[in-house]
Amino acid sequence: MIEPIRLIVGLGNPGPKYETTRHNAGFWMADLLADDVKSNFLLENNFFGEVAKFRQGGENVFILKPATFMNLSGKAVQALSHFYKIPLESILVIHDELDLMPGQIKLKKGGGHAGHNGLRDIHSKMGGSNYWRLRIGIGHPRTLNLQQGVADFVLHMPSKDDHELIVDGLYRARHAIPALLAGDKDKANRLLAEPKA
């Protein structure tokens, strides 16, 4: 069993301009999770983002969507986690992942930021990387045979087919998160690996 997750952070960029872009996959997942627990996001200026909360195992669990833009995500994570005294090991960050194909979802703890600006800032502000990540595959322009730079790629909508694959992955993750919240990493990984029904 693992430390219970008390803060779930979906990474993305605020505003309608970015809503449907690949870089906002973390926001998409955060919205699904808030729906599942019947909680609404409220803008919390003290935490530099939108926050939803629910109860799990007698504790408050927070879902955070930073409103700082991706490369300053750590500012929001630091503010909320320090205020509520949530340790690094009890944080789950959900983010888009270039190194996984659309539809692939992987869970990991710790490690480098692999050039992801949101993770880079969280590492810096939190003074470490020993938190959980849910990596949502969006593919890489090279592996998808696209003549597009990475920065341009993540700030555009996926193709219709890739979008469907990403959404399928999100729905698998939706079923796996409760197991992770309950501290059962093995069950969460099994559910993430299950093919679409």
UniProtKB/TrEMBL annotation:
* Residue stretches in coiled coil: none
Q: Which interval of the chain is the signal sequence?
A: none
Keyword annotations for this protein?
Cytoplasm, Hydrolase, RNA-binding, tRNA-binding
Indicate whether RNA-binding appears among the record's keywords.
yes
Q: What does this protein do?
A: Hydrolyzes ribosome-free peptidyl-tRNAs (with 1 or more amino acids incorporated), which drop off the ribosome during protein synthesis, or as a result of ribosome stalling.
Q: How does it assemble?
A: Monomer.
Q: What is this protein called?
A: Peptidyl-tRNA hydrolase
Origin species: Oligella ureolytica
